[in-house]
Design goal:
Layout: E1 2-6, E2 13-17, E3 27-37, H1 39-45, E4 61-68, E5 80-83, E6 86-87, H2 93-96, E7 107-108, E8 120-124, E9 128-130, H3 137-157, E10 165-169, H4 175-184, E11 188-193, H5 196-205, E12 209-212, H6 217-225, E13 232-235, H7 240-248, E14 255-258, H8 270-276, E15 279-282, H9 288-299, H10 306-309, E16 312-313, H11 318-326, E17 333-336
Parallel strand pairs: 10-11, 10-13, 11-12, 13-14, 14-15, 16-17
Antiparallel strand pairs: 1-2, 3-4, 3-8, 3-17, 4-5, 5-9, 6-7
Length: about 350
């Protein structure tokens, strides 16, 4: 099969032929139909995840089950599925609490084991989520991450409630969906970005206020939020400077949720958090339940993926797709392996 392999950090992906994967006990092989290209792939490419090398990246995918390992009866050959990129044990105390994204033995597709920038992938059967033939493969792929990630941040971590003011820093593939989800949840949304095109997208996604970042951004955010400041801040930018701005923008009782990834430290004044009873916490990925819920929202017309699936490329253009994302020309690209299931 064809696959795009990362052989060294900082280098391009190499398109190559490798043997088809064979499922072991508890595993299935999925023929990939679509895989999103996101900021995590860029972070992986530069060594941010300290991944296995060589590795086939790609973690935001949909496809069709084509082969079953011994003992699999939970899914059948020919079933369209969304892929949950986490291999979790299901038995540790964290998994038993429902937080399988935080499994004590977690392994990630496209990081610790080969991912979906390939024609086929082998994955635990418990990590596939059946979908219908009426679902668009590209939409399913991006829903599994670009939408499920901010959904987890807003619903599971921030517990967003109708009427609250939500500020989203960074309007990219994650941030734009944080905006539309917060609006769907009945929140007042303020979007912050350095790019006018991104702010225009945020308004289309449901932002009431769009602010171009720059000097005094924290004060401008608090002024736009009104007395007491914002209730929730979703920070999606991989920048220590923006993390500092987000914390400085926090209002009374504000929940600041870290979604964007950076290896650089940033200062936090403990008295600022104490005085405002604000909280800073992380949001790591999503769970299968989050994927199922955003799939239902999409099927019901509550949210859209049109802004995510318009830029499609074949596998042999995966490096171009990464370059598009790195240059900010797109909020998402999809590696397309053919139309339909």
């Amino acid at each position: 099969m064809r696959a795009a392999v990362l052989r060294e950090y900082g280098g391009p992906l190499e398109l190559t032929e490798i043997p088809d994967p064979v499922p072991g006990p508890g595993q299935v092989v999925v023929d990939i139909r679509a895989c999103g290209v996101c900021g995590s792939d860029l972070f992986l490419q530069k060594g941010g995840f300290d991944s296995t090398i060589p590795i086939i990246p790609g973690h935001e995918a949909a496809g069709v089950v084509s082969s079953l390992g011994p003992g699999i009866d939970s899914v059948g050959i020919g079933q369209p599925v969304a892929l949950y990129y986490i291999d979790y044990c299901g038995t540790c105390r964290i998994c038993r609490s429902g937080r399988v994204n935080m499994c004590l033995g977690v392994r990630r597709m496209g990081v610790e084991f080969n991912g979906a920038f390939a024609e086929r992938v082998v994955i635990p059967a418990r990590s596939v989520i059946p979908v219908t033939e009426h679902d668009d493969p590209a939409a399913v792929a991006v829903l599994t991450d670009a939408v499920a990630t901010p959904y987890h941040a807003l619903v599971q971590r921030a517990a967003a409630r109708p009427g609250e003011t939500v500020v989203v820093f960074g309007i990219g593939g994650i941030g734009a969906n944080a905006v539309q989800l917060a609006a769907y949840l009945g929140c007042r949304v303020i979007a912050v970005s350095r790019a006018d095109a991104s702010l225009e997208l945020a308004v289309r996604m449901g932002a009431e206020v769009a602010i171009r970042t720059g000097p005094g951004i924290s004060e401008r955010v608090k002024e736009a939020a009104g007395p007491g400041g914002p209730d929730i801040i979703i920070q999606t930018v991989g920048s220590a400077e923006v993390f500092s701005q987000a914390v400085e923008s926090a209002g009374i009782g504000c929940r600041v949720i870290a979604v964007g990834a950076t290896l650089d430290p940033f200062p936090v004044n403990a008295m600022d958090l104490i005085w405002r009873e604000a909280a800073l916490s992380g949001s790591r990925g999503f769970t299968p339940l989050d994927i199922r819920e955003v799939l239902d929202l999409h099927r019901g017309g509550a949210i859209t993926t049109d802004h995510l699936v318009g830029n499609r490329r074949p596998l042999d253009q995966v490096n171009d797709a990464l370059d598009d994302l790195r240059a900010g020309r797109v909020v998402r690209s999809v590696i397309d392996f053919g139309s339909g299931w």
